Amino acid sequence: MELTAAPADAGKRLDALLHERLPEYSRARLQSWIKQERVLVNGKFQRASYIVRGGETLSVTPLALPPLKAEPEELPLKILYEDSSVIAVDKPAGMVVHAGAGHATGTLVNALLHQFGTLSSVNGDLRPGIVHRLDRDTSGVLLVARTDAAHQELARQFHDRTVEKLYLALVHGQISHPTGRIVAPISRDPVRRTRMTTRTASGRAAHTEYRVLEMIERFSLLEVRIKTGRTHQIRVHLSSLRHPIVGDRLYGAPTSSLGRFFLHAHRLRFISPTTAEPVMVESPLPVELEQFLEILRREYS
User: Fold this and answer.
1) Which of left, alpha, beta for 124 (phi over 0: left; psi -120 to 50: alpha)?
2) The whole model's pTM is what?
3) I want to staple 220 with a disulfide (CB 3.0 to 4.6 A). Which of 84, 175, 235, 254 is the partner?
């Protein structure tokens, strides 16, 4: 689609003007297209905050809308634990949890629906069963609710912070203290909207604890526990200490040969909605992370 900015449009933000001209699409969807460079101004990429001068040609290449309902899809799926109300899966790095902008298929939800048929409906038809999430490039344990009652109970446990979440992370630099705690509110970065930050006055409370497991020359292998579950919490908190996670270029890490970032949801402990007994599920470190550690150990031994 091609649009022309009128003289009266001068001074408007690019995303606001597009929303005026294309009201059938949400502003959030239009902003995602801008980030994906599906919107060009006079043939060039501009940010959503670009101020229109008037007279520009706006070229918009819409992305197909995701399905209104997630569909079953045959994909590899590793089950770590299963009972009548809960499934714990071992999510691989690179797999998106549920459909969103640019990810209508190939998600964890698609795989779950193929294997289990029905899941809880609390989060609607696009996110059935999903109680919490892991970033695309984070691997490890993720809980899924099979029934609405189980979903509500697990959501309560996450809200009350009684679910124990333990991660393994490899960061750049040697951390000076063997244990530590980071208590800093997290909010959306006002400039780079794909990032979170601890540098604004506002934000949601976030609490991260870490313990050094191993020092490998210029790297530190950490065991990380989070008391809250904010977006990118571990990534932004460790970056705020100037110890970004290996491979996490969004938060300041240099380019790595790893191909993902070194963050793994290793262990999760919760109370089963079925038996009311504690359940601990553990995911071993993926092969590519183990191999990366071994290469560093040999290199610096």
Assistant:
1) left
2) 0.78
3) 175
